[in-house]
Amino acid sequence: MKQIPLALVAVALVAACPADGIRPCALDVLPVGKVRPTGWLRTQLELQRDGITGHAEELYDDIGNSDWLTGAHRGKQYEWERGPYYAKGLLSLAFALDDATLKARAKRWVDAILASQLPDGDFGPKRHSWWANMISLWLLRDWAEATGDARVVPFLERYFAFQRREFGKFPIAGDSMWAVARTGDEMDVVLWLYGKTGKDEWLEFARALSKQSADWSTYYRRGGDPGREKSTGYRCHIVNFMQGLKTPALQWRLDGDPLKAGAYEAAFASDGWVMRTCGRPDRMVNGTEPLTDRSATQGTELCAIAERILSCQSVISVFGSAAVADDLETVAYNALPGTLAPDGKGIRYYCLLNQPSCEDKLLLFANNGDRKEMVGAICPGPHSGFGCCRSNFHLAWPKFAQTMWMGTSDGGLAAVAYGPCRVSANGLEIEEGGDYPFGGNVTLTVRGGAGRKTLALRIPAWATGAEVKVNGVAEADVKPGTFHRVVRDWRAGDVVTLEFPLDVRASFWHQDAVAVMRGPLLYALKMACADSVVDRYKVPYENEWIEKGGKLGFPRHELKPASPWGYALVRGADGDFACETSPVSLGEKNPFRPGCAPVTLRMKAVPTEFGGWGYMREGASARAVDPPPSPVPAVAASPVTVELVPFGSTQIRISLFPWAREGL
Fold first, then answer.
1. What are residue 495's phi and psi, to 5 degrees?
2. Whole-model pTM?
3. How many C-beta neighbours within 10 Å does residue 491 have?
4. Which of 159, 200, 274, 349 has the fewest Cβ atoms within 10 Å of its own Cβ atom?
5. In sequence order, what are the residues at sequence separation of 6 or more whose Cβ sits closer than 8 angstroms to the Cβ of residue 637?
6. Residues 6 or more apart from 198 whose CB is under 8 A from it?
7. More confident residue, 547 or 70
């Protein structure tokens, strides 16, 4: 079967502007609910349903009594982003699980938003609230796609007409720097509306929005002037940075600018300023709110993880990029579970690569390190840091699930990310199984539908030697970093198998510390943990003790190491790190629960205290000492064997190690 890298197909369209003035997407995002997670992946969504997402309206007053629902005009956080953030994730979760209770709860939000529209077209609890309204637009678009609700399109047309009239005296910048940075979120919905209606006025409106957006294409290549950040969309803010990723791709659909086509790649190029300055092996970047450095104990925000997943969806759709899909998996299978409590009842505001202790102590980051809102920001619980993350994280797993499959331009399906699920779209029903990402096996079984269709199968860039078989017959010309296309007459019972070799890979980061990856997974030291449950704690923005979280069964946890972690991995004379891999065992429903990792790596290491390694920082005891420069000097201790497990299967962790030369 012929193989075509879909990214090349999309970029080839740059020079040719279609007759209607908009470049088509390489892949189509499927409506929420078309992809249903199964197995351990479904468990992650069920934990949300039974945990924070399912109880958010009880836990958080600014959600449960949001002005968006009540019309009470309490102001501040009640009228701004938190309610719509939550509702957007709630709706996606409801349809991913096909849960009637959650669907009814989501409909309550949809009905309230639709009912809030004024005669002039504006809506919501506050006038000209461009940014918060953008979040609600996503919610309404997803609802319309899933249900066919005929109220949504006229609602959007009235609102966009209102904005078009108002922009002369109240532009996007008149709302906030957040709106300028995140204009791409609205552009995505406007382009969807154009596709539904075919009305040129909405294409022109998308161009008007584009002109008011922060200049992300330039920023991802060259950075910006720190003194002008607030006036140019605060682009160094890590959540803005991640939300902005979708904007150049959407702008490219309008103008075909090659600089916009390459903006995402520029942002995450290994030799670009972003990854050199603050990059991480989990394909996130460090930022505590603004971007920081590559220290192993700087953090990345849960909000940023969620928005990275959502932006990947848009960029993959536009360009059909296998590389961006690789990033999507890496973020979703590492940073996301590593920032969530394994019982679904807690989050961390910040995720640190090296986080051997999670205590309610000062972090002393350059930003937010000594603010009262940051107390408990690395302790899993329902209140952690600012309220944005506990409002926004709800969309992360459901939107990842939605993006696992997309439609191809010829009416087929593309496997964008792999994991246990069932997809029913474009005349095919496919059940996906296997042990991926913990192992290298993926099985796609056609359960329903028939006819000549394309299956475009992503082959990860790291999967050298990957094999694809259709009903036991091997496919030729399977290349890493592309989508392998299989075009045939499909029948129920057909089986496609993919085998991805999972070689262990080492990469080097701050002070030459080493990160260990296997397939899409980052690995971390397996550590014993002492867990202290805290029922009574201070809530951000409140200078009082409360017990509400504990009473509802949502306490805060403080976690301390119960085993040593001051190890340097041993590097052989050939430059490699010797490693033994255990067989994969997926018997546990939640592979991200500590102690239940489906696979472990056994590696040689030496204990060392060089440079204070193995201890917490003085004056910032919530953060560890950074790995000393490698290779560490000769140590007297004999090598030992340590176990590494997937990053997401740990609650306390070391994932960036110093290293020592073999024989020291």
1. -130, 130
2. 0.95
3. 12
4. 200
5. 606, 607, 608
6. none
7. 70
